[in-house]
Write a structure and sequence with these properties.
This protein is mostly helical. The chain folds into 2 domains: about 25-175 and about 320-330, Peroxidase, domain 1; about 180-310, Orthogonal Bundle (Peroxidase, domain 2), CATH 1.10.420. About 40% of the residues lie in helices and about 5% in strands. It has helices at about 5-10, 50-65, 65-80, 110-125, 135-145, 180-190, 195-200, 215-220, 235-245, 265-270, 280-285, 290-300, 300-315, and strands spanning about 15, 210, 250-255. The protein has a 3-stranded antiparallel β-sheet with strand order 1-3-2, covered by helices on one side. The longest helix is centred in the middle third of the chain and has 17 residues, at about 110-125. It is globular. The structure holds protoporphyrin IX containing FE (HEM) and 2-acetamido-2-deoxy-beta-D-glucopyranose (NAG) (4 copies). Protoporphyrin IX containing FE (HEM) binds next to helix 3, helix 7 and strand 2. It catalyses: 2 a phenolic donor + H2O2 = 2 a phenolic radical donor + 2 H2O. One of its GO terms (biological process) is response to oxidative stress. This is Peroxidase.
């Protein structure tokens, strides 16, 4: 490996982005969920839905390039905790600490919340009270993935927004970078995902960032004999150290895919055997026999990755969806219609 990557390594990750914490919650098994979503859900009630979402994400992403990755992660955190119901978007108030303010601060970027808010604002002018925030998030995520070069997949619509958002429901439903493979597989298995689907979805780390706190232990406190995990490419490890040495306020981040950080491709999987993953949870994919074969397959065949990823995203986007009277169409994405909730 080595020299071919060197210039990029030093150029690409001197980046500081502010934290804004958020997350999502509880343990719902979707296997028998009886939802009804459809591709033409807004065809008559909001015919410009597709166009408005597409225009808004393009405008936002071209001004704020961190939006795409942030929004993908926002969807993950919405759907893994109490289903894809926009509960991650709810703001806390004096009576309720909402999911996005869960203690495990998962640093969801403000730009991701902002793009949903913008789309909602335009839609409320065009077709008031019709489009749910959870549908906006699902559609915007797909469009942003496509904009970055990733696969197109269809997004069935008709989700209602949830009526509950509680910070305490988050823990245990989201994967963490310090989990064992057993724990990671379990988190996804509970929601009905196979190891293969989990690996495909983790390919989302082909875009976006991770904060130094998420991989500091691997570069500074790995073991007694060596402070740095020897499986990290040595040049990359040096670059990560010099990045995180500047991390005085917890805002420094490294790209999850250091070679093509803004392009949605299969480079993330190609990076793994080169030791170019910052997160331990990413590197583990090529160490564990339950995931290694899938990671190698996706590294070798981007078409296969895109197909599996698209299917995985459809499944993620349908987790415990609320329909009918189980939810509402929020007027504002950050507040329940009945503020008592
Ligand atoms: C075992 C599985 C996973 C673990 C342990 C994990 C962990 C993480 C961590 C620690 C970060 C960095 C957060 C930060 O420091 O700001 C991150 C970022 C991200 N994750 Fe994951 N993740 C996993 C699976 C997924 C899946 C399934 C998706 C989507 C389908 C996803 C999408 C993202 C994206 C897009 C980012 C970048 C966010 C940004 O740049 O704002 N992750 N993930
Ligand atoms: C995360 O939350 C903890 C405790 O709530 C706080 O001490 C810490 O500063 C927060 N970190 C970031 C980066 O927001
Ligand atoms: C991972 O880190 C979090 C936060 O620092 C900690 O609470 C948790 O116990 C750790 N989990 C594992 C599996 O080590
Ligand atoms: C955090 O530190 C970085 C790098 O030193 C700096 O660019 C950034 O403005 C700081 N952010 C805050 C919120 O202090
Ligand atoms: C890559 O995957 C696609 C989709 O599964 C398949 O049709 C194609 O034959 C594969 N290409 C190679 C070179 O194996």
């Amino acid at each position: 490996m080595g020299s071919r990557f060197t210039p990029l390594l030093f150029l690409l990750f001197m980046i500081s982005i502010p934290f804004s914490s958020s997350s999502k919650s509880d343990n719902i098994n979707n296997k028998n969920n009886n939802y009804k979503l459809s591709l033409d859900y807004y065809k008559r009630t909001c015919p410009d839905f597709d166009r408005i979402v597409r225009e808004q994400i393009q405008d936002k992403q071209s001004k704020q390039p961190t939006t795409a990755a942030g929004t993908v992660r926002l969807l993950l955190h919405d759907c893994m905790v109490s289903g894809c119901d926009g509960s991650i978007l709810i703001a806390s108030n004096s009576f309720n600490k909402a999911e996005r303010d869960a203690d495990i601060n998962l640093s969801l970027p403000g730009d991701a919340f902002d793009v949903v808010t913008r789309i909602k604002t335009i839609l409320e002018l065009s077709c008031p009270g019709v489009v749910s925030c959870s549908d906006i998030l699902a559609e915007a995520t797909r469009d942003l993935i496509v904009m970055q070069g990733g696969p197109f997949y269809t997004v069935p619509l008709g989700r209602k927004d949830g009526l509950v958002s509680k910070a305490e429901t988050v823990e245990g439903n989201l994967p963490r970078s310090n989990m064992s493979m057993d724990q990671m597989l379990k988190i996804f298995e509970v929601k009905g995902f196979s190891a293969r689907e989990m690996v495909a979805l983790m390919g989302a780390h082909t875009i976006g960032f991770a904060h130094c706190t998420e991989f500091k232990d691997r570069i500074y406190r790995y073991g007694k004999k060596t402070p740095t995990d020897p499986e990290i490419n040595p040049k990359y490890a040096e670059a990560l150290k010099s990045l995180c040495a500047k991390d005085t306020n917890g805002t420094m981040s490294a790209f999850n895919d250091v070679l093509t950080p803004n392009k949605f491709d299969n480079m993330y999987f190609k990076n793994l055997p080169r030791g170019l993953a910052a997160l331990a949870s990413d590197h583990m994919l090529i160490k564990d026999p339950r995931t290694k074969g899938f990671a190698e397959w996706f590294a070798a065949n981007q078409t296969a990755f895109f197909e599996e990823f698209g299917r995985g995203m459809q499944k993620l986007g349908a987790l415990n969806v609320k329909t009918g009277n189980d939810g509402e169409v929020r007027r504002r994405c950050d507040t329940f219609n009945d503020v008592q909730n």
